[in-house]
Amino acid sequence: MNKAEVLVIDDEAQIQKLLRIALESADLNVRQAESGRDGVLMAANHPPDLILLDIGLPDMSGQEVLKELRGWYTKAIIILSVQASEADIVTALDNGATDYITKPFRTGELLARIRSAIRRNNVEQERSIIVCGDLEIDLAARTVKRDGALVKLTATEFNLLALFVRNEGRVLTHRHLLREVWGVGYQQETQYLRVFVRSLRKKIETDPERPRHITTESGVGYRFS
């Protein structure tokens, strides 16, 4: 079985060295880029299984790198940054980051999040039927069952649920959800999103007032588990 490959885009030599040691000890292949432009080129020429991306790069903003990568790269991108404000985190998640870890970080936690992200990538590629507790979602057939009974969803509700399922465990911001399901022109319509989340909860949650699957991340968005 081939080792998973991680591309590190970070210009700090000490961080590069630390990450190489940690990732290789976890049986991962590592490639490294010291600038945003080099990182984008390396990812384009040989797409890795996961990208670790710093926000503070010498040639361009990591946020710009993230947006450029998300034009075609669909696998996990984890941000590693000293920037820890809520605004920075929300912006990165809006731009398509899978996860956000602040420096200094704990190596064990980083490796756990990397394993989880790669595992989600593999699951999405290998199967279209996802089982989450009492829910069974068939992404190919566009059907949902709860406790074996078919749940009738509108096309928009299913698109929203499918986006949640494909990003299980990841916080999705209001803007990201609105952009991906409804389009760029709806990115400020947070009340619109709340209406659909409420409707979806009524159909898939045992207790919509105490949801187990679609939980609220206050001020940021929602998480599916």
Describe the protein in words.
Strand 6 (129-132) and strand 7 (135-138) form a beta hairpin. 30% of the residues are buried. The model has no long low-confidence stretch (mean pLDDT 89). The chain has eight helices and twelve strands. The strands form three sheets. A five-stranded parallel sheet has the order 2-1-3-4-5, sandwiched between helices. It has a four-stranded antiparallel sheet with strand order 6-7-8-9, with helices on one face. It has a three-stranded antiparallel sheet with strand order 10-12-11. It folds into two domains: 5-124, Rossmann fold (3-Layer(aba) Sandwich), CATH 3.40.50; 128-224, Winged helix-like DNA-binding domain superfamily/Winged helix DNA-binding domain (Arc Repressor Mutant, subunit A, Orthogonal Bundle). It has 225 residues and is an alpha/beta fold.
Q: From the coordinates shown, what is the CATH architecture of the largest domain?
A: 3-Layer(aba) Sandwich
N→C terminal distance: 29 Å
Estimate the global geometry from the Cα principal axes. Answer: globular
Structural class designation: alpha/beta
Could you state the order of secondary-structure elements as H and E?
Answer: EHEHEHEHEHEEEEHEHHEE
Number of domains: 2
- Which strand order spans the largest sheet, edge to edge or round the barrel? 2-1-3-4-5
CATH fold topology of the largest domain: Rossmann fold
Q: Could you tell me the radius of gyration in angstroms?
A: 18 Å
